[in-house]
Recover the amino acids of this structure.
C-alpha cells in the first residue's frame, strides 16, 4: 500500500528531466558564464567590477535568505558581512605573520580558503546576536536589527585594536601556500578566486533552500502559528536561518577581504546594510535569482553611473520606489512575466501591449531625466548647462520645459490608455 | 548641584523636542502599522520650508505655515504612494518609506543646495534669558519648551475632547472596528498621516535653527525617532512622551558622568589602560537610545505603555 | 557630465605650439566623494584641482605636457575607491589625488604600493592633499605617497605653538570624536600642551561617538562649569558645527581652536554668533596679504566657481611642486618625479614650503585663522570670513615632528 502513496507523489512531483532543467541547469549555466568571461579579455576596470559584483551577489543572496525566504526584514545585515570580513582579514594577517615567522597552523592555511574563515566569523556573530533578535518576525525584528547595527557600528570606531580605527585593517593576499597555481596577485587571478566562491555561495544558498530547514523557514514566514502546531519552534527555525545567513554574509565578507585586502569600520554601518536591501529587493526577493540581478545592476550603477550623473542616488531611489509600487516581484519578476507572456498563446497580443508600455515608460523617463539633470545643473550653479546630444537645455529655456513636459504627459497618457484597454478586455 | 539642574533642564528640553518629532510617528504607526522611515525627512522638510518662508516673510508665519505645507505633502504621499503599496503588506509599506527617505534627501539637495542653509533663530528670541552657574540660557530654548507643551496640550485636547479625536483614538486601538462602524478609513488614514507629518514638520521648524538645517539632518535624526516610538509602545502617546523624556534625561545625565569602565568593573580586574577600561560613561551617552531599543524589544516588546505588542 | 575635465582647455592649448619634445598628457585621477553627504567637499577639491591644472596649462603645462584632471566618485568608501582606482589605471592615469577620509587614503596607499610592486614600469604616484593620519608619513610611509597637508600631529604642534604665545589661556578643555583621529588629536594636544605650557591645566578630555550627538548643550555646560577658557577640538562636519553653536549659545567666551572650522558650509551654519571665537589652523586664508598674481589666481577661481571659496591652497602648492619636480627630472614618469620631489623647495605665496625627503611630508607655514566679520574677502556669500594677525603665523620649521619612517626607495 505504500506503493500507491509513492506512485501518486511521483505523478504530482516533477519528472527527472524537469528537475534537471529547473535545478541543475541554471547552476551549470552560471558556472559556464563565470568560466567564459575571461575569454573576452576584460580590462582591469571590468575585472574589478566583476569582482565587486561577485562579492555583492553572495552578500545579496545571504540577505535574501532572511528577507525573501524567512520574511525577516533586516536593517543591519552588513554587521555579519563586516565581522566575517574582519575575521578573514585578521586571518590574512596571521598567515602573513606565520609564513615569515615560526610557521604554525596559519602558515599552511591558503589565502584561497579565507572565505571559510569569513563564514565562520559571520555565523558566530549570527549565533551570538541572533537568538534574542529572532523571537518575532516583522517590525520587532527590523527594529532590533537596526539597534544592533547602530551599536556595532559605533563599537567599530571605538575599538581600534580589533577594527583598526578609521584606516581599518589591511593585509596582503600574496602569502601562504598557493592553490591551483594562483598567486592571487594580479586582478585576473583574483577573478578566479571570486568566481569560485561566487559559485559556492550561490550553490550553498540554493542547497539551503532544498533542506528541510530551508523549507521550514518559508513555512515560518507564511504562517508561524501553523509551524508551531506541527511541532516546530518558529524562533528556533528563524535563529538557525539567521546563523546560516550570517555565515554566507561572512563568506562574502571573506571574499571582499581578499579582493580589497582591507576592511574598514564603515563596512559595518547602516549604509551598506541599506544597499544590500536595495540590491535584493530591486532584483526581486521572491525569486531565487533575483538578488543576483539586483547585485549586478546596483554594483554597476554605483561604480559607473556616477561618471555620468551625480544624481545617480536620486535615480536609484526612484527605481526602488517604482519597483516597490508597481513591480513587487523586482527585475526577476519582470523577466519571468515577459518570458511566460511570450510563451503563452496570446504572445503577439502581449508583445504589442508591452511595446506600447515600453514606449510610454521611455517617454516618461525622457521627461524625468531631463527634469532631474536640468535641476542638478541649475542647483550646482557652476554655470554649466545640461546639453544632451549637443542640445543646450538651460533651466529657463522654453525648449527645456517642452522636453520635460511633453514626453512626460504623453508617456503617462499612453500608459493609462494601455491600462484601460487591458481592463476593458478583462 | 549645578550638574543636576542643568541636566534636568537640558534633558527635559531635548526630551520635548524628541517627543514633538516622534508623536506624529506614534499616531501613524499605531493606526496604520506603518513604521514611516521617512518621518525624519518630513522633519527636515519642515526646517527647509521654514527657512524659505522666514527668508521671504517672518519666522512667525513659518511657524504656522511650514507644518501645514509639510502636512499637505504627507497627505499626498499617503494618497498616491502608500495607498498603492498597502495591499502588499507592512513590509512593502516600510520599504516604500525607506525609498522615499532617499528621494526626499536628494530632492532637498537639489532645491536648497548641498550645504547648510542660514536658518536662524528669530531676533526677538535671540538673547540669553538668564544665567545659571556661569552659563547662559538662550531664550529660544525656553521658547521650544513652550511650543512643545502647547503642542502636547493641543494634541490632548483634540484627541480627548473632539469627535475626530475620539474616532482616531478608537482607530488607534481597534482600526478594523472603526471601519466596520462606517467611517471612511482611507480618509482617516490620509488625515492622520498628514497630521503626523505636520507634527514632524513643526519639530523641524523649531529644531532646524536651534540645531543645523542641512541635508544630513534627516539621516541624523532618523533612527532615534524609532527608538522613542518603540520604547513608548504602540498606541500610546503618553508612552511616547514618557520614552522621549526618559531618553532626553538619560542621555544628558550620562554626559555628566565621567566614570570609566575601569572604575566600575575594576573589581573584575579591568584596568584603565585597556581599551575597554578607558571608555567613559559620558562617551557612550549617545548610544544609550539604541541600547534601550534592543533591550526593550527583548524584554518588553510592547514598550513602556503600549497596549499591544508590535 | 560628472567627469568635468580640463580636456577642452588642454586641447585648445595644444594648438598653441608647446615647448618640449613629448606632448603627452599628464593625467591626474581625483578619487574623492562627488555625491552623497560628503559630495560638496569633494566637489570643491575637484574644482580646485581642475582650476590649478587649467592655470598650469595656460602657462604651457608641466614640462611641456598638458595636465588633465578627471574626477572619480568614490562615495567616500574605501572599497569603492579601489574600483575607481582600477578605472583610473585603465585610462592610463599615473597620478592619483585624494584627500577626504583617512580610511580611503589608507586603502589607496596600500593598493598603490601593491600595484607598484606587482606592475613594475607602471608605477603610480599618490598626491595626498588632505588625509591627515600621521601614520602615512611615519610607520606606513611609502615612496610613492606625498602629503601636501600638515598631518594631525603637525597641526597640533602648530596649535600648541600658538597657545604658547597666549598667556591668557590657563585652562583648556579637549573634546573630540571617539575614533582614531579624535583620539590622536587629544593625545597630541595633551603632549604638546604639557611640553610647551606646563602651567596650563587640562580641565577635561572628552570623546563622544562619531556623528551621533544631536544636542551638544550638556557637553558645553560641562565645559563651562569646568572653568575652561579655551577649547580644542578636531571635530568636523555636523559634530563641529553643532558643538560650536551650542558653545556660543550657552555663552562660552574663550577661543575654540579647531582643525576644520574653515570647511565648506561651516561658516553659514555657525553664523555671526561665532565671530571672533572660532579659530582654525590652516595653511592659508584669503585675507592674508598676497601678491597681485596670487590675488588674480584666487579671484579667477571664485569667479569661475561662484558657489565655492578658495580653500585648498595646498592644491595650488601640489600642482606647482609637481611641475617643478617634473621639470627637474625632465620627465613625467612617476618614479623620476618622485625622486625629484624629495627635498624639493618651492617659493609659495606664503613663504618657502619643503617636501621632506625622509618621509614625504610637506613643511609649510601655518596660520591660526579667526572667524571674523571684518574681512575684505568673505566666504559662502557672507560678509564673514577668515583672517589672521601678525602673531598668528607659525613658521614651517616649528611644525616639524619626528618621524619613524624608514623610506624604502626603488633602484634608480
Amino acid at each position: 500500500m505504500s506503493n500507491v502513496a509513492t506512485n501518486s507523489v511521483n505523478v504530482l512531483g516533477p519528472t527527472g528531466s524537469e528537475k534537471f532543467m529547473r535545478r541543475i541547469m541554471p547552476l551549470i549555466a552560471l558556472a559556464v558564464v563565470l568560466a567564459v568571461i575571461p575569454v573576452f579579455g576584460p580590462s582591469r576596470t571590468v575585472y574589478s567590477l566583476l569582482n565587486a559584483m561577485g562579492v555583492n551577489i553572495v552578500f545579496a543572496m545571504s540577505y535574501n535568505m532572511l528577507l525573501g525566504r524567512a520574511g525577516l526584514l533586516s536593517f543591519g545585515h552588513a554587521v555579519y558581512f563586516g565581522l566575517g570580513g574582519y575575521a578573514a582579514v585578521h586571518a590574512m594577517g596571521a598567515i602573513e605573520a606565520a609564513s615569515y615567522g615560526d610557521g604554525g597552523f596559519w602558515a599552511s592555511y591558503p589565502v584561497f580558503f579565507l572565505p571559510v574563515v569569513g563564514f565562520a566569523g559571520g555565523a558566530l556573530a549570527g549565533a551570538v546576536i541572533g537568538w534574542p533578535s529572532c523571537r518575532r518576525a516583522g517590525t520587532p525584528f527590523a527594529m532590533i536589527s537596526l539597534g544592533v547595527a547602530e551599536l556595532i557600528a559605533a563599537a567599530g570606531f571605538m575599538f581600534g585594536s580589533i577594527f583598526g580605527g578609521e584606516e581599518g585593517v589591511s593585509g596582503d593576499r600574496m602569502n601562504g601556500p598557493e592553490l591551483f597555481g594562483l598567486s592571487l596577485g594580479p586582478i585576473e587571478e583574483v577573478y578566479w578566486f571570486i568566481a569560485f566562491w561566487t559559485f559556492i555561495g550561490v550553490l550553498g544558498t540554493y542547497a539551503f533552500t532544498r533542506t528541510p530547514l530551508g523549507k521550514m523557514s518559508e513555512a515560518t514566514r507564511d504562517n508561524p502559528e501553523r509551524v508551531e502546531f506541527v511541532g516546530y519552534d518558529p524562533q528556533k527555525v528563524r535563529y538557525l536561518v539567521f546563523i546560516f545567513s550570517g555565515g554566507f554574509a561572512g563568506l562574502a565578507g571573506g571574499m571582499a577581504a581578499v579582493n580589497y585586502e582591507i576592511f574598514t569600520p564603515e563596512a559595518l554601518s547602516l549604509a551598506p546594510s541599506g544597499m544590500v536591501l536595495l540590491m535584493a529587493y530591486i532584483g526581486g526577493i521572491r525569486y531565487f535569482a533575483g538578488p543576483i540581478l539586483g547585485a549586478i545592476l546596483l554594483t554597476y550603477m554605483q561604480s559607473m553611473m556616477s561618471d555620468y550623473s551625480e544624481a545617480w542616488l536620486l535615480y536609484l531611489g526612484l527605481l526602488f520606489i517604482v519597483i516597490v509600487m508597481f513591480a513587487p516581484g523586482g527585475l526577476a519578476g519582470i523577466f519571468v512575466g515577459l518570458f511566460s507572456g511570450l510563451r503563452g498563446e496570446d504572445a503577439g497580443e502581449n508583445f504589442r501591449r508591452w511595446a506600447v508600455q515600453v514606449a510610454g515608460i521611455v517617454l516618461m523617463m525622457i521627461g524625468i531625466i531631463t527634469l532631474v539633470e536640468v535641476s542638478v545643473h541649475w542647483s550646482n550653479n557652476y554655470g554649466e548647462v545640461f546639453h544632451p546630444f549637443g542640445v543646450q537645455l538651460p533651466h529657463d529655456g522654453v525648449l527645456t520645459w517642452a522636453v520635460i513636459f511633453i514626453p512626460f504627459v504623453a508617456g503617462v497618457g499612453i500608459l493609462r490608455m494601455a491600462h484601460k484597454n487591458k481592463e476593458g478586455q478583462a | 548641584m549645578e550638574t543636576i539642574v542643568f541636566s534636568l533642564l537640558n534633558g527635559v528640553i531635548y526630551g520635548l523636542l524628541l517627543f514633538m518629532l516622534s508623536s506624529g510617528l506614534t499616531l501613524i504607526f499605531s493606526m496604520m502599522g506603518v513604521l514611516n522611515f521617512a518621518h525624519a525627512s518630513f522633519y527636515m522638510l519642515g526646517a527647509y520650508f521654514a527657512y524659505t518662508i522666514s527668508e521671504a516673510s517672518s519666522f512667525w508665519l513659518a511657524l504656522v505655515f511650514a507644518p501645514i505645507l509639510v502636512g499637505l505633502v504627507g497627505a499626498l504621499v499617503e494618497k498616491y504612494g502608500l495607498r498603492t503599496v498597502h495591499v502588499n503588506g507592512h513590509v512593502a509599506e516600510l520599504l516604500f518609506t525607506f525609498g522615499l527617505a532617499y528621494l526626499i534627501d536628494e530632492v532637498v539637495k537639489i532645491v536648497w543646495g548641498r550645504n547648510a542653509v542660514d536658518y536662524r533663530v528669530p531676533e526677538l528670541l535671540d538673547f540669553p534669558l538668564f544665567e545659571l552657574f556661569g552659563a547662559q540660557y538662550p531664550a529660544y530654548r525656553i521658547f521650544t519648551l513652550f511650543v512643545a507643551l502647547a503642542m502636547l496640550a493641543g494634541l490632548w485636547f483634540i484627541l480627548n475632547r473632539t469627535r475626530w479625536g475620539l474616532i482616531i483614538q478608537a482607530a488607534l486601538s481597534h482600526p478594523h472596528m472603526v471601519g466596520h462602524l462606517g467611517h471612511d478609513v482611507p480618509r482617516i488614514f490620509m488625515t492622520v498621516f498628514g497630521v503626523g507629518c505636520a507634527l514632524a514638520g513643526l519639530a523641524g521648524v523649531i529644531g532646524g535653527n536651534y540645531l543645523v538645517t542641512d541635508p544630513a539632518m534627516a539621516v541624523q535624526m532618523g533612527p532615534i525617532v524609532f527608538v522613542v516610538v518603540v520604547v513608548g509602545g504602540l498606541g500610546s502617546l503618553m508612552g511616547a512622551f514618557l520614552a522621549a523624556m526618559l531618553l532626553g534625561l538619560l542621555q544628558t545625565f550620562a554626559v555628566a558622568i565621567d566614570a570609566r569602565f575601569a572604575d566600575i568593573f575594576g573589581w573584575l580586574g579591568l584596568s584603565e589602560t585597556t581599551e575597554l577600561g578607558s571608555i567613559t560613561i559620558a562617551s557612550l551617552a549617545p548610544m544609550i537610545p539604541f541600547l534601550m531599543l534592543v533591550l526593550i524589544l527583548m524584554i518588553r516588546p510592547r514598550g513602556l505603555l503600549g497596549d499591544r505588542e508590535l | 557630465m560628472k567627469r568635468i575635465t580640463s580636456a577642452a582647455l588642454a586641447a585648445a592649448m595644444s594648438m598653441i605650439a608647446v615647448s618640449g619634445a613629448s606632448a603627452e598628457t599628464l593625467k591626474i585621477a581625483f578619487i574623492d566623494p562627488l555625491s552623497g553627504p560628503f559630495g560638496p567637499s569633494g566637489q570643491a577639491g575637484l574644482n580646485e584641482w581642475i582650476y590649478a591644472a587649467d592655470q598650469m596649462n595656460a602657462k604651457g603645462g608641466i614640462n611641456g605636457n598638458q595636465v588633465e584632471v578627471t574626477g572619480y566618485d568614490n562615495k567616500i568608501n574605501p572599497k569603492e575607491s579601489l574600483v575607481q582606482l582600477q578605472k583610473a589605471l585603465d585610462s592610463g592615469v599615473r597620478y592619483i589625488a585624494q584627500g577626504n577620509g583617512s580610511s580611503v587614503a589608507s586603502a589607496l596607499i596600500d593598493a598603490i604600493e601593491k600595484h607598484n610592486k606587482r606592475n613594475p614600469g607602471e608605477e603610480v604616484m599618490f598626491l595626498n592633499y588632505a588625509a591627515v593620519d600621521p601614520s602615512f608619513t611615519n610607520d606606513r610611509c611609502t615612496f610613492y605617497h606625498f602629503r601636501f597637508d600638515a598631518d594631525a600631529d603637525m597641526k597640533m604642534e602648530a596649535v600648541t605653538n600658538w597657545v604658547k604665545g597666549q598667556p591668557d589661556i590657563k585652562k583648556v578643555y579637549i573634546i573630540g570624536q571617539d575614533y582614531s583621529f579624535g583620539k590622536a588629536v587629544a593625545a597630541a594636544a595633551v603632549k604638546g600642551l604639557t611640553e610647551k605650557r606646563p602651567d596650563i591645566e587640562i580641565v577635561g578630555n572628552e570623546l563622544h561617538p562619531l556623528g551621533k550627538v544631536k544636542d551638544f548643550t550638556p557637553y558645553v555646560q560641562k565645559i563651562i562649569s569646568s572653568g575652561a577658557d579655551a577649547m580644542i577640538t578636531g571635530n568636523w562636519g555636523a559634530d563641529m558645527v553643532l558643538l560650536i553653536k551650542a558653545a556660543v549659545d550657552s555663552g562660552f567666551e574663550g577661543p575654540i581652536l579647531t582643525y576644520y572650522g574653515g570647511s565648506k558650509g561651516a561658516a553659514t551654519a555657525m553664523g555671526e554668533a561665532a565671530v571672533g571665537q572660532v579659530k582654525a589652523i590652516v595653511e592659508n586664508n584669503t585675507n592674508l596679504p598676497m601678491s597681485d598674481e596670487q590675488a588674480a589666481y584666487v579671484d579667477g577661481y571664485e569667479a569661475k566657481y561662484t558657489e565655492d571659496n578658495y580653500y585648498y591652497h595646498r592644491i595650488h602648492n601640489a600642482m606647482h611642486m609637481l611641475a617643478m619636480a617634473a621639470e627637474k627630472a625632465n620627465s613625467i614618469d612617476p618614479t623620476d618625479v618622485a625622486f625629484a620631489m624629495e627635498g624639493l623647495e618651492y617659493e609659495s605665496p606664503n613663504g618657502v614650503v619643503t617636501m621632506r625627503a625622509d618621509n614625504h611630508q610637506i613643511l609649510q607655514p601655518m596660520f591660526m585663522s579667526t572667524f571674523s566679520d571684518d574681512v575684505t574677502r568673505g566666504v559662502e556669500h557672507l560678509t564673514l570670513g577668515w583672517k589672521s594677525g601678525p602673531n598668528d603665523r607659525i613658521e614651517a620649521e616649528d611644525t616639524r615632528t619626528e618621524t619613524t619612517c624608514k623610506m624604502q626607495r626603488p633602484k634608480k
In short: Residues 2-32 of chain B form the longest helix (31 residues). DSSP finds 13 helices and two strands in chain B. Strands of chain B lie at 128-132, 135-138.
